[in-house]
Specification:
Number of strands: 15
Helix content: 40-55%
CATH superfamily of one domain: NAD(P)-binding Rossmann-like Domain
Strand order of the largest sheet: 3-2-1-4-5-6-7-8
CATH architecture of one domain: 3-Layer(aba) Sandwich
Strand content: 5-15%
Distance between the termini: 50 Å
């Protein structure tokens, strides 16, 4: 299967920012491009904007004059839909309204040739529903570009219930030919990125609502320990709280109000108050002129213990043993029991597992890190019953390893660990239900939202049972279904020769 031939015109409907970006991508890939907009004069303005963008690429040395001149000669504005009669592909990027899009595609179907692919750039509406009004919905599909389209490499290729496999194949080849990275997905709410990404925001908001930590601290922990490019509070301030909450609410409603996608009351109040983020001057943070950058909680210096005992296999945190020895901390190893780090004052350091410190005598939990050697910050949690000496020794130990330390409340699963576990679970469920392949989900999350690892890659790194066990514990402490691990995640434990904790405790009897 080949993509749309370079000799065929690509038409873009909607001359706003996204439409202009898609037009630029197709134009620089060698197509003739027609830009259409229902608003008088808007298409012509859009052509001018695209031309200016191409000329800026020349000024930056990314395109030579001859290429730019040839490209700008291939773009034009269409005054009527009838002018798109020779198009090989039409991509719509208009208002997110089902009726408006359906009316547009009805009109297009009467104009374009039989072999023309019809595509919507929708990020939230059902591709199946949009195409249901067409006489030939088999050639209709979603091509969801990410903004800014010329810069971001990911394109979700979404097949509706009636989309022909050949149409999806042709769209994939076209996207590849344009220098983009396509991922295939079924027509499910949120597609890949907006579906799988929900816990990145939701778990941070939940920790805030549980009074576990403030936004600046949560953001810092996810960046400096989890390896994420931005924290969820700063990112939603950038996106717009109203936009982010609308996507969350849409996915929640589309999944019949599943607790897995429950919106945040704290974010709802933010939107209701008009604090929408950078565009309104305030959101989770203040963004006015001269406003200082928010500071995360960072623990004061404490003395590190001279020696510790590592009991059992620390699993995902095994690198800490070598780091402690390199830092001059004497480490004694005990092969059975645990896993935990025994501190001199008899307290224990335990990797976040979905339980709480208050359940135990003198336990401090530490959060998951993408890379304990490279992490710049580690979060610790303790209950009111945790001894002062134990907490001080835990803080001092990680400071000895060169880490900043943020002490948060006694929140089960902490910050990074519960976020990653939920990402793994949603991805496993999506794969099991045919929404997308594991490889495409990993690609989408790395390229679409700059995650350090895809959920499948996290799962491989952390082990077959890790996410299941953590969510199983979380579900016991926070019942209601949000943290109930999926059947797909349970099965992954067996596929990886893991031992599901639920079976050990008799839940499978």
């Amino acid at each position: 299967m080949t993509g749309i031939e370079r000799s065929r015109t690509v038409a873009v409907i909607g001359a706003g920012t996204m439409g202009q970006g898609i037009a630029q991508v197709a134009l620089l890939a060698g197509h003739h491009v027609l830009l259409y907009d229902a608003a008088p004069g808007r298409a012509g303005t859009g052509v001018g904007e695209v031309t200016a963008r191409v000329e800026r690429l020349v000024a930056k040395g990314r395109l030579d004059h001859a290429e730019a001149a040839a490209a700008t000669a291939r773009i034009g504005a269409a005054a009527e839909l009838a002018e798109l009669s020779g198009a090989g592909l039409v991509i719509e990027a208009v208002v997110e309204d089902v009726t408006a899009k359906q009316e547009l595609f009805r009109a297009l179907e009467a104009v374009v040739p039989a072999d023309c692919l019809l595509a919507t750039n929708t990020s939230s509406l059902s591709v199946t529903e949009l195409g249901a009004v067409l006489r030939h919905p088999d050639r209709f599909l979603g091509l969801h570009f990410f903004n800014p389209a010329p810069l971001l490499p990911l394109v979700e290729v979404v097949s509706g219930a009636a989309t022909a496999p050949a149409a999806a194949d042709r769209a994939v080849e076209t996207v590849l030919g344009w220098g983009k990275t396509p991922v295939r997905c079924a027509d499910t709410p949120g597609f890949i990125v907006n579906r799988i990404a929900r816990p990145f925001y939701a778990e941070a908001f939940a920790v805030l609502e549980e009074r576990g930590a403030d936004p600046a601290t949560i953001d810092a922990v996810l960046r400096e320990s989890g390896g994420f490019r931005m924290g969820p509070f700063e990112l939603t301030d950038l996106i717009g709280q109203d936009v982010n909450e609308a996507v969350t609410r849409s996915v929640w409603e589309s999944f019949f109000r599943s607790p897995k996608f429950l919106p945040s009351l704290a974010q709802r109040r933010l939107v209701q108050s008009g604090r929408l983020g950078r565009k309104s001057g305030s959101g989770w943070y203040a963004h006015g002129p001269g406003e200082p950058a928010p500071e995360p909680h960072t623990a004061a210096p404490e003395e590190a213990p001279a020696e510790v005992t590592v009991v059992g296999d620390l699993g995902p945190a095994a690198a800490l043993v070598e780091l402690m020895e390199e830092a001059g901390v004497k480490v004694e190893r005990v092969g059975t029991g645990g896993p935990y780090i025994q501190l001199p004052g008899e307290g224990q350091l335990v990797l976040a597992d979905g339980k709480t410190s208050v359940e135990f005598t003198d336990v401090v939990y530490f959060d998951l890190a993408l890379d304990y050697r490279g992490a710049g910050r580690i979060a610790l949690s303790a209950s009111e019953d945790t001894g002062e000496r134990t907490l001080a020794e835990a803080v001092g130990l990680f400071q000895k390893l060169g880490k900043k330390v943020s002490v948060i409340g006694d929140v089960p699963g902490m910050i990074v660990a519960r976020t990653v576990a939920m990402l793994i679970d949603l991805a496993a469920d999506a794969v099991a239900k045919g929404a997308a392949s594991r490889a495409d989900i990993d690609t989408a999350m790395r390229l679409g939202v700059n995650y350090p690892l895809g959920p499948g890659e996290w799962h491989d790194r952390l082990g077959p049972d890790w996410a299941y066990d953590l969510l199983h514990h979380l579900d016991e402490r926070c019942p209601g279904g949000r943290y109930a691990p999926s059947l797909a995640l349970f099965r992954l434990g067996y596929a990886g020769d893991g031992t599901a904790e639920a079976e050990e405790e008799g839940d499978g009897a």
